[in-house]
Amino acid sequence: MPESGALFDAHDRRLIVATQAGLALTPRPYHALAEQLGMPVAEVQARLARMLENGVIRRIGAVPNHYALGYVANGMTVWDVADEMIDLLGEQVGRCAFVTHCYRRPRCLPDWPYNLFAMVHAATRAQVAVHAGEIAVLLGAACRQSDILYSTAILKKSGLRLPA
Amino acid sequence: MSETAVLDAIDRVLINALQGGFPLCDAPYQAVGEMLGLAEAVVIERLQAMLARKVLTRFGPMYQIERIGGAFVLAALKVPDADYAHVAAAVNALPEVAHNYRREHALNMWFVLATETPEGIAAAIASIEAATGLPVFAFPKEREYFVEMKLHA
């Protein structure tokens, strides 16, 4: 186990590399990892539990493909929000059920005046626009301008890949 | 764009139940099956089938690389339409590019760089600029606002 305070050590890294493409779909997936890594199964489970607890692992489970579930309209809604209000309002936007990611990011003037990014997935673009309208109401006068960038193609989706 | 998949009730139950909280016990698929009233073999076969059909893009732990000293950065390019395919190929060729989407805007290519160290981001950006001749607009996350992160199937 890593020293107390350290989030992560070389054995954790081997576990990450061994699971970043996914967990084995066999009845005892942690035993399969233990065998592959030459580590006792209890240690595999304890290390994963520790990484879940300290946030190195966000969660363990299924990542659905939005499109396959019928969420075919994907709009990155972007907002130019007054700096002194953005954290308060960003928390509220993140709590909207239709928002799947919500971040504060730097503006890049003059090309990019927006500092709040909220990803909205829905069945149609019209529905995304309705949700964007709900966000606009929530932001009120603190928002100076906004846009919706719809995706038209997934060019790549592989997720994190650390070299082994 | 991929087509909307045909999902039956069992697929939907699994998708809705398994977006987090997968157990760390010795026989986790069996434990999930007991919770949902499904046989272990059914849970495994359905997950395999949904991965094969690309209803699921992954099954397993999702890592927050920032917590181990790495970095995720959203970045964008303004790509001339005539060059789009070869720029997409050049960007996608980098292992540091975790996903990449075409979007309708002057900034029309949006991708996420994931690297094991913060310095890796600058190196990846330099490679992309060298390979494409285009300036990369980088939008590092300054703050993440909590989201529930559940899609209803």
Describe the structure in your own words:
The complex is a heterodimer of chains A (164) and B (153). Chain A has 164 residues and is an alpha+beta fold. Chain A folds into two domains: 45 residues; 78 residues, Lrp/AsnC effector binding domain/regulation of amino acid metabolism (RAM) domain (Alpha-Beta Plaits). Chain A is built from five helices and five strands. A four-stranded antiparallel beta sheet of chain A has the order 3-4-2-5, with helices on one face. Chain A starts with 9 loop residues before the first helix and ends in a 7-residue tail after the last strand. The relative contact order of chain A is 0.15. Chain B has 153 residues and is an alpha+beta fold. Chain B has two domains: 44 residues, no CATH class; 76 residues, Alpha-Beta Plaits. Chain B has a four-stranded antiparallel beta sheet with strand order 3-4-2-5. In chain B, a hairpin with a 5-residue loop joins β3 and β4. Chain B is elongated. The two termini of chain B are 18 Å apart. The chains are: A alpha+beta (164), B alpha+beta (153). Chains A and B meet through α1, α2, α3, β1 and α4 of A and α2, α3, β1, α4 and β3 of B. β5 of chain A pairs antiparallel with β3 of chain B, so a sheet runs across the interface.
Key terms for this structure?
heterodimer, A: 164 residues, Alpha-Beta Plaits, four-stranded antiparallel β-sheet, 5 strands, B: 153 residues, alpha+beta, 2 domains, 5 helices
